[in-house]
Write a structure and sequence with these properties.
Length: about 450
Amino acid sequence: MQASRTYPVSRGGPLRIPRDTLSRVLLGLPLFLLLGWTTKAFTPDLNPKSSLMARDLDMRLEIVSSGAALWKQLLLPVFTMACLMFIIRSRNLFRAYLNVLLPLGLFAAFLIFSYFWSDHPSDTMRRAIRQVMLFTSVAGAVVIARSQNRFVNYLLFFSVVLLVYEALFLLVPWISFDVYNKFTGLHPAKNEFGGVAGAFLLISLATLRYYAETAKEKKLALYCTIGWAILLLLSGSKTPIGFVLMLGPLMLFSQHLLRYMSIAVISFWLMIIVFIPLALIGVGEAPIDYYRSILPEEALTGRTGIWFHLLADLKKNWMFGTAYGAYWGVGEVPEALDIKYSYYQLLHTAHSGFVDLCMQMGVIPTTFWLLMLIVFVIVTRNASDPMSSALIAYALLHNCLETSFVHGLHFVWVIMVMAMMNILYTQGQKPNLDAVFRNIRAQKYEPPATG
């Protein structure tokens, strides 16, 4: 009988690198983001003297465009291409990749399509393409992981590295504390740092409560929890502190409460953006007058004054907005707003992701986007992933008083995209993940058998 011939199994990646090695490199999305932050590659894509944003010449506060250096622009495309080169080698992996990418891919298609009614089409197209690359690269990292544990491990590792890096700025207080003696770390403002610190504090809590298996992992998660809590308190950023105090106990008690919180936040903003204005218009009243009567302009540290100004401007393009990326950081500063010492000179967001969505996408697409988020939360209710659920709820709360929704590569937006895609992948691969997750926890705490 003729001996059967055996053929060596190719384990090489697209660059003849072992698959396991390449996958670990591609899974380093958090490290890639860390590199981006430390090199200021992901600063807001805004140009000086544009829209409502300018420089305060007395304070020398200059805003630098994130597209200034070519190598910074290439970071995201290179990572995206590396993910695709790895994924297309496997039909099953590519199918899973498309399933994960499809929901946000449709959203990205709308962002690109808004090019056709944009007053600043080049800005719209450039910023929309960057969102496409963000979605494709994050989907690739999630699919390549093929393991929730590995995904969590990378996030915790990134948490440790970034925590140490941010803490080092305590040694140089003259550049890491603002004029009010609030810690900002490597970021320009305490609220920006607070958004990052709050998210990582929830990641550390979730790891400590649900994912850590060994004593070493528990200690590491505990140190991260304490470290991020200290830095967050030093920042004095009240918004993320309040959100962590609200979501932390919910996550530790029951992850299903996080989903109810998400639905409640979305429903609240649908009432504000859609249902109350429609009811007021129906009885012949102006919505802006109603909002002014219940929220004085001094409320919420001046945010409501910004919202009133923008909502009055929304009447010009209320249906589909100005198009994605065509409101902030485009055009010239109106002469009336180019005022010395005016806070409008440094304003580049509405300080509410929901309001910014309306300004750029209009009321109809914003309503559709929020309804799809509710559908996503309900459909994936069996996906037992407390960390991802907590990050989505945190992002929704964060966007009540700050802006991160499709705001360039804002950390809270990136982490929300990662959480959504991780849930989509685990939901598609393991529909009964909730039962599996409970079994894993039961086995982890089961006492060893004695002979």
